[in-house]
Amino acid sequence: MCGIVGYIGSRNAYPILIKGLKRLEYRGYDSAGIALQNGSVNVYKKQGKVTELEEHMMGMDLSGTMGIGHTRWATHGEPSDLNAHPHVSNNGDFTIIHNGIIENYTVLRTSLIEQGYKFKSETDTEVLANLIEYIYRSQKVSAEDAVHLALSKVVGAYGLVILCNQENDKIIAARKSSPLVIGLGENEYFLASDATPIIEYTDRVIYLDNDDVAVIKRDELILKSTKRNDALKPRIQTLDLGISEIEKNGYDHFMLKEIFEQPRSIRDTFRGRLNLEKNEIKLGGLYNVHDKLIHAKRIIILACGTSWHAGLVGEYLFEDLARVQVEVDYASEFRYRNPLISEEDIVIAISQSGETADTLAAIQLAKEKGATVLGICNVVGSSISRETHAGVYTHAGPEIGVASTKAFTAQVTVLTMMAMIIARSRGLVGNERFAGLLNELEDIPEKIDKILQQNDKLKEIASIYKNVNNALYLGRGVSYPVALEGALKLKEISYIHAEGYPAAEMKHGPIALIDENMPVVVIATKDSSYEKIVSNVQEVKARNGIVIAVVTEGDDTIEKMADHVIEIPATDPVLVSLLSSVPLQLIAYHIAVMRECNVDQPRNLAKSVTVE
Asked: What is the SS3 assignment for 143?
């Protein structure tokens, strides 16, 4: 959601900015813009894709060794050239780009109108630009002080990058609840909302914390806090990220690449953590909270979207293996229902980006109530990794496609390892069972490789159902979250209405929808509820429904009833979601491609939802 890129140094800024905006396209956006500082500030912005901005700027003055760029995802005001960023203050003193939401912008706007300010856009960002300018002029302070004073009046979230026309040797950046990272070069600095536009130029970065303000010159960086005026010592980190990880590498889409990367991403998630010889799992990020985790009476899992589905899988794993009470909540609803939280509770927050605004807000509430808060995320240095007491990185690598795939299976892998550790420490899983699960988990990447070899068959199934209007996904037990996730993938990228249900709930409503035009995807792998899922398949077929069944290899019972059978290798029922989710990802992908949808950047969606 929204993307920021900036540069100050000796190079021509425009090529860095335009390439950076293209790197950020995966986040989801509806307009883009660039401002270049070269004596004065030249602003160019356009509704639509970055390529349309690039065409718009052909023949323009693109000179300047300092500049900022932005991709906008509409919050205040519809997508348009006027509402696109950057925004310029009335007198041209300040040019700013902004991720986040200024909640009290209406009050600020009214006050500024009373002071004679006029507004061209409907955005909260233009209000902030004019507020900074008003303070700058009326109080005759420096640009840095004007930003500090303006932010003290602001309620909301922001990642800000600001140019001042009169003080044109610097860029000012500020962060509160919306990520910003600064890349360090030789007498040059790069700014971005995440590391993807930066890694081509440097691997040394500073992640801004909440309330940080950075004043950046070509040969100097000063870091301060909006809460106090003393300088902070920047904490420089090294990126563990390669340029090849954010390129398609021969695949037609990032989503397809990421589906096929899952054997590698799952292996990377458990590499160095599984030890078959010693029959143990070590998650170093949980070392300091190990005893609390083992003795927890209740675990609360908080997440949104696909991560919530991973959390539901985690609920089954923790309760089945470790016999601990688990609640899974939408992070977006958690703090609005006055939840009961105690100091004995363990809260696990799951987020691919580590920047999900709703999840971060829920974390703050849980911490205020005294709970121990753990994070599971994919991005090193992200807000969730800094705001939680402890946690585990998934090591899935960058996920560029908006519809999450490898992040889901990596999250489930981490949750599986956590459940196994608790279960063994509580004496609920013996050495033999634990060793069996370890070996099965290590075999998962190879088994996913085998599923991926069925890509052509899955593409053929997709071609048959590419024009349906509705689809139903059914699963029981740990396969119910997989049904939810399969339905989400289809609706996200192909825009086909799809719903996931517990299979037993089919008779309580969804069965009314079933006819000869309704494909029903059933996760029907061999486990304790297999006979009941067979009955569900029979019920669908009795109403002329179409059945696409995901079954365990060698199943000849459902094969006789279903219209299509997709076999996956046998594994322990605890781990089956890691396998059964993969063919559903591929079917959704191929249907979306055949419908000529934008697979990597589905309409209206953003990769990282950094506003509530």
From this structure: helix
Closest listed residue to residue 175, CA positions, set 391, 4, 364:
4
Q: Among 2, 304, 377, 597, which one carries the catalytic annotation?
A: 2
* Pair (285, 336) in one structural domain: yes
Co-location of 463 and 564 in the same domain: yes
Which residues lie across from 238 on neighbouring strands? 204
Residues 302 and 359 in one domain: yes
Backbone angles phi, psi at 440, to 5 degrees: -65, -40
- Do residue 235 and residue 270 come from a single domain? no
Whether residues 195 and 253 fall in one domain: no
Same domain membership, residue 504 and residue 369:
no
Judge whether 324 and 296 are in contact, CB under 8 Å. yes
8 phi and psi angles, rounded to 5 deg = -145, 130
Domain holding 100, by residue range, is 3-244
Q: DSSP states of 10-75 as a string?
A: SS-HHHHHHHHHHHTGGG--SEEEEEEEESEEEEEEEES-HHHHHHHTTTS----SEEEEEEE--S
The residue from 431, 449, 467 where one domain ends is: 449
Output the six-digit token pair for 594: 């055949």
Q: Is the peptide bond before 583 cis (omega within 30 degrees of 0)?
A: no
**Cα-based angle 187, 235, 3 (whole degrees, multiple of 5):** 70
Residue 612 inside a domain? The answer is no
At 182, phi and psi to the nearest 5? -115, 125
Q: Tell me, yes or no, whether 162 and 269 share the same domain.
A: no
Active-site annotation holds for 2? yes
The answer as to whether 611 is a domain residue is no
Q: Does pTM top 0.90 for this prediction?
A: no
Here the CATH number for the domain that contains residue 380 is 3.40.50.10490
Q: Say if residues 540 and 547 touch (Cβ distance below 8 Å).
A: yes
Sheet holding 470-475, edge to edge: 497-502, 470-475, 519-524, 546-552, 564-568
The pLDDT tens digits for 525-572 are: 998 889 999 999 998 988 889 999 999 999 989 999 999 999 999 999
Express each pLDDT in 389-447 by its tens digit: 999 999 998 888 889 999 999 999 999 999 999 999 999 999 999 999 999 999 999 99
Active-site entry in 22, 170, 406, 607: 607
Tell me if residue 597 is catalytic.
no
- Name the percent of the chain in helix, strand, coil, to the closest 5: 40, 25, 35
